[in-house]
Amino acid sequence: ASDLVIIPISPSPVDFWATEPIIEIAKRAKKKVVIQINRANPRAKLMKKTYAYIKDLGMEKTNTLIGHRQIFVASMGEGKTVIEKQSKGKAAQEIAELSSEIYSTLH
Q1: Contact (Cβ atoms closer than 8 angstroms) between residue 67 and residue 40
Q2: Is the pLDDT of residue 70 over 80?
Q3: Using one digit for the tens of pLDDT, what is the confidence trace for 41-57?
Q4: Rounded to whole angstroms, what are the CA distances from 91 to 17, 66, 69, 82, 102?
Q5: Is residue 47 within 8 Å of 76, Cβ to Cβ?
Q6: H or E, element range at 61
Q7: How deeply is 75 buried, as exposed, middle or buried, from its count of CB atoms within 10 A (0-12, 13-18, 19+)?
Q8: pTM (predicted TM-score)
Q9: Contact (Cβ atoms closer than 8 angstroms) between residue 66 and residue 39
Q10: φ and ψ at 10, to 5 degrees?
Q11: In the structure, how many helices (H) and strands (E) does the chain have?
Q12: Average pLDDT over the chain, rounded to whole?
């Protein structure tokens, strides 16, 4: 069983609609829930709506944004992580930051 449920959400109304049922399932299981903004463009107009949506839900979010980067798709297609494929890139940095944040949340 997990101690933490991380729900990835893209800045998209489709993801907004899909998120609430997952939150309810996690709450019924009495799990801590954190929302992770994924495939993000920090300058996009939908980011404000995404932050507002998370706030309206009364949910916590991670501080780390995972950007919309082709390296995620490319590395997955090769069966690798972004850290394995491009260890010095921005995507690897984001994953390392998220990993540290999750670790801190759990300990």
Answers
A1: yes
A2: yes
A3: 988 999 999 999 999 99
A4: 27, 7, 7, 7, 16
A5: no
A6: strand 60-61
A7: buried
A8: 0.86
A9: yes
A10: -90, 155
A11: 5, 3
A12: 93
